[in-house]
Structure of Folic acid synthesis protein fol1:
Amino acid sequence: MLHAKETLRKMYSVAKGYYCGGLAAPSPFPAALDLRHSLSSSRKAPGFVNPCRARSYAHIAGRSADQEIVIALGSNVGDRISSFDRALRLMKDSGIKITRHACLYETAPEYVTDQPRFLNSAVRGTTKLGPHDLLKKLKEIERDIGRTAGIRYGPRPIDLDILLYGDSQISTETLTVPHERIHERQFVLAPLVDLLGSSADDPMEKSWHSLSKCSGGFFDVWNELGGESLTGTQGIKRVMAVGNRLLDWSERTLVMGVLNLTPDSFSDGGKFQEVEAAVAQAKLLISEGADIIDIGAQSTRPSATRLSASEELERLVPVLDAIVKIPEMEGKLISADTFYGQVAAEAVKRGATMINDVSGGQLDPSILEVVAELGVPYVTMHMRGDPSTMQSEQNLQYDDVCKEVASELYTRLREAELSGIPLWRIVLDPGIGFSKKLRHNLEIIKGLGSIRKEMGKVSLGASHVPILLGLSRKSFLGEICNRADPVERDAATVAANAAGIRNGANILRVHNVGYGVDAAKVSDALRM
């Protein structure tokens, strides 16, 4: 208890300094200086909300229009991910429309430190509920999930806090908005800034930043605590929930091994159609170090003939049923490479743990709500058109390929989020070889950082999502190296993947896993 009180005294002292806006550290966010100028100017604009003039509760309670809100989530007891999923469903059922999600963080406990680690995140949404009615509803949800009275700052199955409510300041006996301890909590600030964009073009975000009472808004508050340099430490880590596991993709580059069950795939078509051959290949990929096995029963090469969902399942189900049973799969992940919602549902039912959709929900929009309900990670890829049209002249037109891929891929991400797939379950694939010429592919590999930065202008959380790079043995490598046979492109694949890792790729999708693992290990070692 003495330790907790001392911690509180120290944190209060630090927070007091931040709250007065007296500190300013260098910002890791490129737009932070521009943001300070924007916020400073906006305070003088006619009609700008005065953050120091708290709106009366009567005025707020009388509102019937939707209010933009930010709600923080925390859990360190029981099945933490299931508690988050249930809380999101109950919020939706209560009329709270969730529009954005932060990343997912595993954090060390603060204040009362002798307790399990927490999962933390935050969501942004809209509601017609007044602030106190919203608080009441969130408390009901906490009780439904099993929270009872306990030690303050102690263990709890779920914790839901209102961080921001419209452009209002609220101070009553039961509710303070902005949340009074935002300024001292890294586990709150990290998810909060995920929900904001670095460009500061959003009027509501400008109001929220002004409520921080720091010249650079919540970005400055976050930076003063340590900002991005804190993530990846024991105090706070970004993670992805996969089944009952938490995957920390920042620790090392992950390798996804390709297992094609198709007769017409460009590299290994026809080799693994039989169950026995497919199982043997899966065992080989695992023995070489694969973290994930990506099983595809439909070719997506240029001009490939599209199978129906039932035809795809005829190929997939026997192999998937056999692979999930082999002991070598323990601790590994299975990805189903499909754009059909029906196939995704059946694959997860039979043991797949993630879905890899080359169309980003464009070929079968039902897949988005299916994956949301399944609660598994979702890879959304950039492609224009479909495999039969993606290399048309129209689909190959770009003025700035990285900027346009970022914009179009962000649209896919937003569609997934609005369908109920949290940001913390999304992986982005820039679609090397899909609707791209040779020069486009090279620009993307070199420009992964600029793609992240472009997304960060509208959502810092989106800029932190893991990136999957699938360039293995593709034709642009053959063009560069004069290698007509895809199998002869493994050395070129290693070189391109190493460049991709250096520029921010987190997952490599490869045919030759042994080479892919070696490339990842060396690249990771060079980054340390």
The two ends are 39 Å apart (CA to CA).
